[in-house]
Amino acid sequence: MAESKKAGERKKTFLRRDFLAGSGVAIAAGALSICAPESAAALAQETTPAAKPSYAPSTGYIVYDSRLCWGCQSCMFACSSSHQGEANPALSRIQIIRDAPSFTKYPLDVVMAPCRQCVTPLCVQNCPTGAAHVDAEHGNVRVIDQAKCIGCKKCIQMCPQRPHRTVWNPYKKKSSKCDLCIDAPFWSKKGGPGGEPACVAGCPAHALKLVAEPPPQEDVAGYDVNLDQPRPKMPPRVPGTPMGKQPASKS
Amino acid sequence: MANGYTGKIARINLTTKEISTLDTAKYEEFGGGYGMGAAIFWELAVAPGEWDLKDPFDPRHVLPLMVGPLAATGVPGAGRTSVCGISPETFPTCEFWRGNFGGRFGTMMKLAGWDGVVVEGKADKPVWINIVNDQIKIEDAKDLWGRDTWETQDKIATMVGGRTRFGEEWQKFENNTYATGRPQIVCIGPVGEAKSRLASLITGSGVSARIGGFGAVFGAKNLKAISVIGSGTVQMADPKAILDARLWQMTGGGLVTGGFAPASAGSGSCNPCLRADRRRNVYRAGETMCVDQFWLNNPEKQGLGMSSTGQGDSERDLASEALMKYGASGWSAHFLGLFVSDIPGAPAFFHKKVPVETGIGWYIRYLHEIGELGPGKRIESSPLPMDEWGELSFRLAFLDAISKRVGIGDALAEGCCRAAQKWGRLEKDMESGALRFPAWGATGHWTLPSVEWAYNYMLGAGDPSWHGLVTAVGAPRGKTLEQSLTELSKKTIPYTDDLMMFNYVWKGDEAYKTGIYSPHKAKEVAWSRHYASFWNESMAFCEMFLPNLETISPEIEMKYYAAVTGKKDSFADTIRIGQKIWTLERAIRTMHGRSRQTEDLAPFMYKPGASGMTFWGGVPMYENGNWRSDEAPDMYLDRKGVDQFKTHYYALEGWDKEHGWPTRKTLEGYGLKHVADTMAKKNRLGV
C-alpha cells in the first residue's frame, strides 16, 4: 500500500501505545482497568490463541496521519451526529485525544484512536450473542447488531487497543463500534467500503482515509501513515496596488 | 431541547458559596455567548442599581463566561467562550467591554451541560471552580496560588482526571458515562493574581482572552481557575443538515479557510490557527497567536517577524512561553508589532520602526531614549535592565516586576496610560503620539486607514479585533474592485446596494459627502458591529474563520444556525439581533457614564503619521467616477469630520444626538422596555 510505504520512509517515534496495540489478548486484561476491572483476569484466560477462528478480512479500513490531525474532533462530532443524531464525542466510535492542557509536544500531543477493523476481531470472537459480527453483505466490516447486543461489555473488554475502540452507550446500555457508516441514518453519503464515512469526509485536516487493503496489523505504524498532500493556493489579488503583497498572516 | 442549548447556566457566588442555575431560555432572544452575557450583566449588575459599575475589582462585579448554541454541535469554529464585564484595562475609565477565547473550554462546557458560568462575589481565600458534568464544587486553591498557568492546569488535570492515563483510557464519571477527553481549564497566572490590568485568561498552552484585562478580575475574586469536563450530549434540530453544511463548506461552498490562510477551524475546538497550531506545538506555547510570538522582536538584533522556525528553543519561543505562563496579555503588554511605519519627527531610534501595534514596551524604550526613564532618572527603571531592552532577559524581568509589583513594575502593572499618568506625561505623550493608543487606552491594532476599525475603537471600548471587512474591501481576486464591492454590498443586509459605504476617501468635501465622515460610512461601521455582535461574539464564530464575505458568507452561517437551532430567522433577522445586543451594550455603557463628549479618539489620530499600513491591497477610494485601491499611508482624521460621523452614526442607531444614548423608542423597538425604564430612573435615557 502506497501510504504504508511512504510512512516507512518517514521516521516514526515509537510510542508506548504502539506496544499496547500490537500485543492482543495479553493486553486486553489491562484494558479493563477503567471499564470493568472485576472481570479482567477471567476474560483473558477465556480467550486463547488456539480458539481463534479465521474471519474474512474487511474490505474497508480507516487509516490516519497523526501528524496532520488538528485534534479538532470534527470526526468525533461527525460520528456521533451521523449515527445517533446528537453531538456527543463520548459516543463517537473514533476517539481523538489531545493532551491539552498537559503540553506534550507535537507529534505526541494527539492520540488518534479509530477502530482498526482488525483482521482478527476479538470483539467479534468474544461476543456471546453474535451481535458483534462480520457483515458479509457490506464488505466484511466488523459491526455490532444493536438488536442482539445484551450490554455485557465483552467486546469492550476484549478490544486490544488502548483506549478500547468499542464504545459503551450508557443511555442504551449497549456497545457500539465503527461500522464505516453502513448504518448512519443522519449521513447523506454512502458509507461502508468504497463509500465515504462521515469522519473521513468531515476531516478538515485530511488526516483520515478509507482504504481497501488490510494495513499491517503488528503495530500502530500500519494505520498511522503519511497522508500529506499539497494545499491548494488562493488566486492572487488583482495587481496595481502600491504594495502588491499578500498577507502572510494577520494579528 | 433540540436547539443547541443545554438549557442552563451556572451561577456561582464566591462570597456566599451559593451555586444556582439560570434558565437559558430566558436569555435566548440574545442568541448566546456575549449577547446572553450582556443580558445577564444587565440583569444582575446594572438593573439592581446598587453598584456604580466603576470598579472592576468590586465583589459585586458579575463576570459571565458564556458559550453559544453552535458550540459542541459539530459546527466548526464556533466554540469560543465570551467573557464580559467592567474592564480593568480601559482608560481613563473602566468601561464595559468583552473579550473571548478559543481552545476547547467552551465545547467542554456544553458537553458538561452548561451554556455558561456566571461568577459573582469574592472568595475569602484562593479557590478554583471544579465542574464535572452537572456537579460544581468550589475548591481550595491554596496549592495553586502563585503557580504559573501551565503548572496550574497540569495540577488540576491530574486532580480531575485521577489515574486515567492520557490517550490510553476512558475516564468513568459518577453518572456512569465515559469519555477520553481531558478537563479544559481557564486560569490566571501570577500577573492576574497581582490584579495587573495586563492580565489575560489562559487556557491550554497559549489560548487566551487578551482583551479587557479580565485576568485581573479573576485575581480580585480570588479565583485561580475554572475547570470543566463533561461526557454529555448536545441536541440539534437537524443533525443531518449540519453534516451537509459541513460537506458543502468543505467541497462545493468555497475554501475551508477564511479570508486568511491560517483561518481554519475544527468542531471541538476553536483556534483559527489550529492548522498551524499543532505543528507549532513542537515549540513552547504552541497555541499562541502571532501577537504573542512576536512579543520579543528586537529590530536591532532579530529583525521583525514571527516565530515560525519551530526550533523550540529560540529566544522568541521562550518569551512567548513566559508570557503565557505568567498569564500576561500579548496585546496589553505589547512591545513592538510585526508591522512598522514611519512617523514624522519620530526619534532616530524609531525611524521607519514605529509599530502599527504599539504598546507598553515601546513606550518604555521611548522614555529611555529621551532620557526620562532609566537608572537614576526621573522615572526610576529598576528592576528592569534597560540596556537589555531587546533581549529575552528584559522580557522576563518585565513579567517578574509586574507580577510582583516591584519597582517600576507597580506602575507598569497598571497599564501604559495609567503609568504615563502617574509619571505626569499622559497629556504630552498622548498629544505627540508617543502613546499610540487609538482610544480607551487600548493597544493599537490596524485603525487607519481601515477607518471603520478606528470608529469601532471609539464606539466600543478599544480594539474590536474584527477583520471581517478588511479583506473584503481589499483589492479583489480575479475581478474588478467595483465588481467586488457590488457583490459585497448585496451581503451587507439591510444596508444593501450602497457602494459608498466602502468609500475611504478622506480629504475634501467628498469625505463628508460620500467618504469617511458621511452617512454611508456610518452604515459600514454599524453593519460590522451588528454582524460581529451576533455571529462572532454571540454565535461565537471565530472572527478569523467567518465571515468570509469574499466567498461563502452569509450562506454558511445561516446553514449552520438553522440546522442547530431550528430557528426560521432570516439573515436580516440575525443582524437585527446583533443590533439589539449592540444597543444593550450601549445602554450598559450609558449607565456607566458614556456620552458623546467622552467618546473620542486619541489626539494623534488627528495628525499626520496616524495611519499605519494596509494589507490586502489597500482600501477603496471613489474619485472622479472611478474606484481604485489606495494604501492611504498618509491618512489622518479631522475632528470636525469625526464629530459629524458621530451625528450620522447615532441617528442610524436610534441614539440621541446630544449624548449618544439609546432612546426609549429604540429600546422598546427591541423589546427592551425594562432597560429603558431603568435608564429613565437614572436620567440616562436618550431623547
Strand content of chain B: 5-15%
The CATH C-level name of chain A is Alpha Beta
Largest sheet of chain A, described in full? 2 strands, antiparallel
Annotated CATH topology of chain A = Alpha-Beta Plaits
> How many extended strands of chain B?
20
User: Which word captures the global form of chain B?
Assistant: globular
Low-pLDDT regions of chain A: 1-50, 239-251
Major beta sheet, strand line-up of chain B: 2-1-6-3-4-5
Query: Which structural class fits the helix and strand makeup of chain A?
Result: alpha+beta
Strand arrangement, largest sheet of chain A?
1-8
pLDDT < 50 runs, ≥5 residues of chain B: 254-265, 271-276, 304-311
Name the CATH architecture of the largest domain in chain B: Orthogonal Bundle
Largest sheet of chain B: 6 strands, mixed
Helix-strand string of chain A:
HHHHEHEEHEEHEEHE
Quaternary structure annotation: heterodimer
Put simply, the count of helices of chain B is 23
Strand percentage of chain A: 5-15%
What does this protein structure show overall?
The complex is a heterodimer of chains A (251) and B (687). With 251 residues, chain A is of the alpha+beta class. Chain A has a single domain (2-7, 16-48, 56-221), classed as Alpha-Beta Plaits (2-Layer Sandwich), CATH 3.30.70.20. Chain A is 23% helix and 12% strand. Chain A has eight helices and eight strands; from the N terminus they run ααααβαββαββαββαβ. Chain A has helices at residues 2-9, 16-22, 24-35, 40-46, 74-84, 122-125, 154-158, 198-201, and strands at residues 61-64, 95-98, 110-113, 132-135, 141-144, 167-169, 174-176, 208-211. Chain A has a two-stranded antiparallel sheet. In chain A, strand 6 (167-169) and strand 7 (174-176) form a beta hairpin. Chain A is globular. The model of chain A is unreliable at 1-50 and 239-251 (pLDDT under 50). With 687 residues, chain B is an alpha+beta fold. Chain B folds into three domains: 8-229, 4-Layer Sandwich (Aldehyde Ferredoxin Oxidoreductase,  A, domain 1); 340-432, no CATH class; 451-681, Aldehyde Ferredoxin Oxidoreductase Protein, subunit A, domain 3 (Orthogonal Bundle). In chain B, 33% of the residues lie in helices and 12% in strands. Chain B has a six-stranded mixed β-sheet with strand order 2-1-6-3-4-5. A six-stranded mixed β-sheet of chain B has the order 8-7-14-11-12-13, sandwiched between helices. In chain B, strands 9-10 form a two-stranded antiparallel ribbon. In chain B, strand 19 and strand 20 (626-630) form a beta hairpin. In chain B, helix 9 packs parallel to helix 11 (392-404). The two termini of chain B are 41 Å apart.
